[in-house]
Design goal:
By secondary structure, the protein is α/β, with parallel strands linked by helices. The chain has two domains: 5-79 and 154-284, 2-Layer Sandwich (Nucleotidyltransferase, domain 5), CATH 3.30.420.10; 83-138, no CATH class. Helices cover 39% and strands 14% of the residues. It is built from ten helices and seven strands. The chain has a seven-stranded mixed β-sheet. The radius of gyration is 19 Å and the shape is globular. The mean pLDDT is 91.
């Protein structure tokens, strides 16, 4: 007998000393062909409680609730380290061009192809970057400007995600919010200013308001409470959590891109919605 109810989670993870982590849940009901944003929870700063425990306990309650089938959780944070940081060795690591590591070799192969066209291109750095970032920057039509996994902003998130990982007992998928927003906007034919300005300090409110107007118009079977729409329009980190949950829903329905055939097997992957998405067909999909 098919399970009629499935939950997809999205986590907008902030740095450990910030109070802007948010978890969102989208529940999919097969019989009604309906999706519902059932949860939008902000982890408030509380000096008396461990913030990591708060995240773990709340997500566990969403996963372990009776009669819930969880498809997984999408995180807007690095879920793996760059190849030269995966293991700690007292030995000297080879320079990238001499490395036998399959991920580094893949990155260097991409670099050599790019150098043939643009000799001045910056060299890839395997203790800061991963194949997934290189792919999004160089092989997608949009050439996404994704930050390095161990950039100034990414390192703390990567370390926190590494700590939380074994405590969250669900399939975890790394996503890139800007990539998800871009592809969702494209597939629903939203005005260009939405994907361009959704995170802007000046035009972000207008862009996010238009985003949800288009969502309600194009996806009438996705139910969102008015207070959630208002909160996600006002606060970018809440908006990001919703986009993460929606991307996890797409992952569960096989509507995100797969790695290219030559992509290294040991490398992590950043899930990106497909350029064209048949939303009507997805809503009819059974759990």
């Amino acid at each position: 007998m098919a399970i009629d109810f499935q939950r997809s989670l999205g986590l907008e993870l902030s740095g450990p000393r910030s109070a802007k982590s948010v978890v969102a849940a989208i529940d999919r009901y097969s019989k009604e062909s309906r999706w519902v944003l059932s949860e939008l929870h902000v982890f408030r700063e509380n000096s008396e409680k461990n913030p990591d425990k708060e995240i773990i306990n709340h997500i566990s309650s969403l996963i372990e609730e009776d009669k819930i089938q969880c498809s997984g959780i999408a995180l807007n944070a690095p879920l793996s380290f760059p190849p030269y940081l995966k293991t700690i060795s007292p030995d000297q690591l080879p320079f990238p061009e001499d490395s036998l590591d399959e991920e580094v070799k893949w990155m260097m192969n991409i670099q050599s192809k790019l150098e043939a066209k643009t000799p001045s291109i910056k060299h890839f750095i395997p203790y800061l970057q991963r194949p997934s970032e290189i792919y999004l920057r160089t092989a997608t039509p949009e050439r996404f400007p994704i930050s390095d996994a161990f950039s100034a902003n990414g390192a703390a998130l990567a370390a926190r995600a590494r700590f939380l990982n074994p405590y969250i007992r669900a399939q975890k998928n790394e996503i890139y919010i800007r990539g998800s927003v871009t592809r969702i906007c494209q597939s629903l034919k939203m005005p260009k200013f939405v994907e361009a300005g959704y995170s802007s300090l000046t035009g972000g409110l207008e862009a996010r308001n238009e985003f949800f107007f288009q969502i309600q118009k194009s996806l009438p079977k996705l139910f969102i409470y008015d207070e959630h729409i208002e909160a996600m329009t006002l606060y970018l980190y809440m908006f990001n959590a919703f986009v993460a949950a929606l991307t996890q829903q797409l992952i569960s329905l096989n509507s995100t891109e797969m790695p290219p055939p030559n992509y290294p097997k040991s490398a992590s992957w950043i899930h990106l919605p497909k350029i064209t998405t048949d939303w009507e067909k997805l809503f009819k999909n059974k759990v």
